Amino acid sequence: MARRGDTIELAVLGLLHESPMHGYELRKRLNLMLGWRSLLSYGSLYPALKKMLRAGWIEEHTVPSTGATSRRPRIVYEPTEAGRAEFIRLMSEAGPSAWEDDNFDIRFAFFSSTDMEIRLRVLEGRRMRLQERLERVQGQLSLTQKEMDRYAAELQRHGVEQVEREVHWLSELIQAERAGTPAPQPPATQA
Fold first, then answer.
1. Pairwise CA distance, residues 173 & 126, whole Å
2. Distance between CA 56 and CA 117 in Å, rounded?
3. What pLDDT is attached to residue 36?
4. Whether pLDDT at 129 is above 90
5. What are phi and psi of 119, to 5 degrees?
6. How many C-beta atoms surround the C-beta of residue 79 within 10 A?
7. 3-state secondary structure (DSSP) of residue 79
8. Distance from the first to the final alpha carbon of the chain
9. Which of 143, 142, 183, 190 is closest to 162 using CA atoms?
10. HSE (CB half, 13 Å, CA atoms) of 112?
11. So what's the pLDDT on residue 169?
């Protein structure tokens, strides 16, 4: 399982790989990427940025503020050559941490920066992991449903359906990758 800090570092390097950003903009983009279940605070972002500065993966520049509401200069972060190399190295990993829950979404967001063979290994690994989870839960479901409250059973059924949808989506992505066609749209999430 990837540490949350490692996931944040990968996401920051990926975003800065696209363009330099200041802290507020990074946090906003990271929260969009991580989703509402994993909102990122400044208390998590700035220690990660400081660690990445010490590692030499990013550098900071002070630029004058362009807004009328603040006269304070902004600190803008951008990757160094070492940071670009680290991002490429991280994105080329295709082992179990690449397809775990904590890391898969971030890696998927930057798949356009990844070689097709690596994308396929990550997608196939994710699908395999979810299929294993699905088989385990379905096996337990029939044994425990008789003993469960109807709401707990409904929650389990909902979880199984979510995993089934993701397995189907991953299968479509794998098929599209192998065929060299555009990827299908991800399943719509329910509010």
1. 11
2. 29
3. 57
4. yes
5. -55, -45
6. 22
7. strand
8. 27
9. 190
10. 7
11. 95
